[in-house]
Design brief:
13 helices; alpha/beta; about 15% strand; 11 strands; single chain; TIM Barrel; binds iron/sulfur cluster
Length: about 350
Amino acid sequence: MAKREEWQLELGRNVTRSEDLDRIIALSDDEKTAIAELSDAYPMKITRHYLSLLDPGDPNDPLRRLVVPSPLELRHRPGEDEDDVHADEAQYQPCPGIIHRYPGKLLLIPTLACPAHCRYCFRKGRKVSHLSQDESEEALEYIRGNESIRDVIITGGEPLMLTDEELFYWVSSIRAIPHVEIIRITTRTPIYLPSRITDELVGMLAEHAPMFVIVSFAHPREIVPDVERALGRLADAGIVLLQQGPILRGINDDAQVLKEMYEKLASLRVLPYYAIWGICAPGAEHFLVDGHEAAEIIGSLENRTSGFCVPHLITIARGDKVRMMGWSPDGERLHLARRDRPSASAPAQVHARPETHHK
Ligand code: SF4
């Protein structure tokens, strides 16, 4: 059996049991109930690294709310099953592991494994699985056969949960396809498990440039020295780093918090790309920020920081990824501007609750 790497050993020390977490951050009775009741549907999983960032004395610590199950997750909004993102994605799935919604690019999902479970994630409740060898070949064959595909977004789950060998299989196979220009990897792994960003991994990714790594920070306190070093290794190797992440109530729905996070990331060569509004996975309504409020927060960053520290505010409406623009203090001029579908027509009003996507 192959020797396990440090990051794999660290994953084996993840906190998944209420009693273990209680010894570290003193759980409330409500949290213990939520952990027990969600143990099948969406179990708690927290890396030791991330746990070390939590403030044990603050029951409302934003970082705690990102990873510790809450009784609010047990509430369900009427009609939330009708907004099933997975059913929507299934319409664009030509074969297992591929979601091809837009011209020119597609999502490749080789694994649904994650180093930790974010409580807001819209993929919550999906059973962890990896593509089989046959499914992997079928997915690659689909990309090979579609010459319009110039951008492959490897997502999940978390692609960096694959071993170096598995990841090499994917990136080298994709890089060998002449019409694919860009490979992107979307991930929160450098935040949860910075030890995963080894020299070997970075070297292998850099060999397959142009390579974009899209990270998903939610709060400036996630940017600690181990994480800074991991990002630095990726940037030094010539990998393009971008930030895209959701705006979440009680976590980062505050212009000062976001400004601090985006400025810190830019100084580490990670440019803010998308801020995503409309996160509302089942049982995650408590994270949802009002659309006008989200637009005002991002709009207020304009002229308060470098232009490249202000991301585009986007959402997903009726299946399209769209930019939200035209913000004003009274919210009257807020519109959605279609972006990703060249053939799409007039802007639409923002009032319809959007579906959720953050990759
Ligand atoms: S955001 Fe990423 S790391 Fe978090 S649960 Fe979702 S897929 Fe996993």
